[in-house]
Amino acid sequence: MINLFEVKRNENYLSIIILVIRLSVAILMIIHGLSKLNMLLKGGDIQFPDPLGVGKTASLTLAVFAEIICSFLLFIGLATRLATLPLIVTMLIAVFVIHGADPVDVKEMAILYLLFYLLLLVTGSGKFSVDYLISKKSRF
Length: 140
Fold this sequence. Notes:
The protein is mostly helical and 140 residues long. Helix content is 72%, strand content 0%. Helix 1 runs antiparallel to helix 2.
């Protein structure tokens, strides 16, 4: 039986929950980013915020890179800590710039994503990842 007040960590349980979080957040963000990818590929007049002052197309491209490419890297667990950085920046911009004046209920999803990305930045990808396979091979 699991002791609810135990402070030691079971590394297998930790790796499993990191896997579940990594896969879930990656899939959800890829789904979220697909509409942006479609907007980018469709061409024409782009209706997208330009919070960094680099132009709407560049801002949209950066968002697509974070939400699609970096989320795919999270999904497979490759360069996980590095892949979280653009996602963290994207969520910080969403929370504090795009939805800065909005009530918390409007920006709470971006805040939740941000918290998961911070968790993955700190924990890494866990045992069930490409990162783990690479690090295991480099030890020999």
